[in-house]
Amino acid sequence: MSGIRPNKLTIQRWRYMFVVMVLAILPVAGFWHIASLQVLPDVDRGYEFLQIQGQARTVRTETIPAYRGVITDRRGEPLAVSTPVVTLWANPKLMDNRAPELTELASLLSITREELQQRLARYANKEFMYLARQVTPEQAEQVLKLEMPGVFGQPEYKRFYPAGEVAAQLVGFTDIDDRGQEGMELAYDHLLTGVPGAKQVLKDLKGRVIKDLALVRSEKPGQNLALSIDLRLQYTAYRELKAAMGKFKAASGSVVILDVR
């Protein structure tokens, strides 16, 4: 009686070698892919591509406003000067229209909560809306202290005229974007206007500046302008003319000052 021999499971040699080769290639392929992403610069979508894409989402270039030149009389008395202010703006897509902080924000903006909610709803599909133009740095600091997502501040300059209406007809004025509209402000706008600068900043996911990275271009302030008028004589003439017009109920008047010597 013959015995029954057990059936041995055998694997062909070429299949065995194929499996070994696949297992050996997988780590090499994985290592090559990692190297192409982090080490090799010329590979499509390599580390340079990833760095550029990452920086595009976190590194931003911001404008540095330029100081507008000062207008003075012949003795150096200021007739038009610029002072730092802050414009508050918001990204409605990042703001919660039902957030409890809206009440305090609206109060600081001197509007009601309902008015603020209506404005946010109107610009709901936009990424930019003004909250307040050219407020003082102290007012802006109170708003930014709330640290509300989507609320930002942009430094700017605002024009002030110390002599007021005494020299207004000569000096003129600028618009809210600091461009000359009348008088010397318009005639010499090209001279008074400075050249804005630029800097690179690092921002978080909420759009807040974390760190200043590099100065791209320094701002260049505008040139100063000295007029030939004397503010003391201008004030005297204005005072006397205003008194005479009130006395005689005149609709308009003019004054001519001559140096007879």
Architecture blueprint of SSEs:
Layout: H1 13-38, H2 47-58, E1 59-64, E2 71-72, E3 78-90, H3 101-108, H4 113-122, E4 129-135, H5 137-144, E5 151-160, H6 168-171, E6 173-174, E7 180-182, H7 183-187, H8 189-192, E8 197-203, E9 209-217, E10 225-226, H9 231-248
Parallel strand pairs: 2-10
Antiparallel strand pairs: 1-8, 2-3, 3-4, 3-5, 6-7, 8-9
Question: Which short descriptors sum up this protein?
Answer:
single chain, 261 residues, alpha+beta, Penicillin-binding protein 2a (Domain 2), five-stranded mixed sheet, three-stranded antiparallel sheet, 23% strand
Characterize the structure shown.
With 261 residues, the chain is an alpha+beta fold. It folds into two domains: 46 residues; 170 residues, Penicillin-binding protein 2a (Domain 2) (Alpha-Beta Complex). Strands 2, 3, 4, 5 and 10 form a five-stranded mixed β-sheet that branches. Strands 1-8-9 form a three-stranded antiparallel β-sheet. A two-stranded antiparallel ribbon has the order 6-7. A hairpin with a 5-residue loop joins β2 and β3. α3 crosses α4. It is elongated, with a radius of gyration of 35 Å.
